[in-house]
Amino acid sequence: MLLIGSHVSFGSKEQLLGSVKEAISYGANSFMFYTGAPQNTKRCNIDYDLTLEARNLLYENNIELENIVVHAPYIINLANNEKKESYLFAIDFLKDEIKRAYALGSEKLVLHPGSFVNLDLDTGIKNIINALNEVLTPNQAVKICLETMAGKGTETCFKLEHIKRIIDGVKYPDKIMVCLDTCHLNDAGYDMGDFDSFLKEFDKIIGIDKIGCVHINDSKNEIGTHKDRHENIGFGTIGFDNLLKIIYDERLKNVPKILETPYVSLAGGKDRSYPPYKFEIDKIRNKKFNKNILENIRDYYKN
Ligand code: FE
Ligand code: FE
Ligand code: ZN
């Protein structure tokens, strides 16, 4: 069965229950959320009753807990330790985030490994390893999925070798998995039009069994531009057919595929914008691309 879903919200009011309802409205059987705003570290306590209600709804809709993914906020930066307090805060926050993911029933936590800023790449990677060694414990159920990055600015992990060094450097490598992001990989210089070669390379360096999640995004930019700007499925430089091949690759059958494509506005950004996920998931399931996303959104959300 195809495991497909998208990024959904996790509101302070309904928490996971809201996320599940949103995912169901898109026809998804998998989803990913931040436990609060992605750009800050304000987090509310996990409500037990709401979580229980959410789990019942998941069960009724045949969505497995193992296909629910949490994404850590992207201001958590383990690669830079110039400000000791921020580095220690990031470590403590990640420890708590693992507990939150576990309380919600998710066993996969996606993490942007970090940017080295004024340091250098090697030091950045060393800092990530040291931080993860503070965070990881031998018995934790939650796996940290290090995301492949585009190499924007001073980001680390835009090469598979960087991630391999982290896996080799931590005390509990079995707690680390990888989240592939097709837009980031394209922007980092990996050809998503030849996914078979990419996966063979990945298998040689890291091992296919380490892939815990795949972010399915088209890219606004050409290969190797180190930009990181996501595009809607079929509207970017990777293209619908190439993305479809990745989504339906037998070797990734049991790995959740998560869309993080941009919301679409009907008036060129002047009005509110709408999630494209229901329509993108439809196209993926039907294996048929059409450019009608604006009309779809107009019909579905405007009445
Ligand atoms: Fe991400
Ligand atoms: Fe991503
Ligand atoms: Zn991105």
Distance between the termini: 33 Å
* CATH architect. name: Alpha-Beta Barrel
Name of the CATH superfamily = Divalent-metal-dependent TIM barrel enzymes
The chain-level structural class is alpha/beta
Low-confidence parts, pLDDT < 50 over ≥5 residues?
none
Mean pLDDT over the residues: 96
Q: Quick one: biggest sheet?
A: 8 strands, parallel, barrel
Helices, by number, come to 10
Tell me the domain tally: 1
Under CATH at level 1, the class stands as: Alpha Beta
Beta strand %:
5-15%
Q: Portion of residues in helices?
A: 25-40%
Query: C-alpha Rg, in Å?
Result: 19 Å
Shape: globular
CATH topology: TIM Barrel
Tell me the series of helices and strands, N- to C-terminal: EHEHEHEHEHEHHEEEHEEEHH
Short summary of the structure?
The chain has 303 residues and is an alpha/beta fold. The chain contains ten helices and twelve strands.
Structure description:
The chain is an alpha/beta fold and 303 residues long. The protein has one domain: TIM Barrel (Alpha-Beta Barrel), CATH 3.20.20.150. 38% of the residues lie in helices and 15% in strands. The strands form 3 sheets. Strands 1-2-3-4-5-6-7-10 form an 8-stranded parallel beta barrel, surrounded by 4 helices. Strands 8-9 form a two-stranded antiparallel ribbon. α3 (84-104) links the parallel β3 (68-71) and β4 (108-111). α1 packs parallel to α2 and α3 crosses α4. The longest helix is centred in the first third of the chain and has 21 residues, at 84-104. The chain is globular, with a radius of gyration of 19 Å. 46% of the residues are buried. The model has no long low-confidence stretch (mean pLDDT 96). The chain binds fe (iii) ion (FE) (2 copies) and zinc ion. Residues 71, 110, 112, 147 line the site of one fe (iii) ion (FE). The site of one fe (iii) ion has 4 residues, from loops.
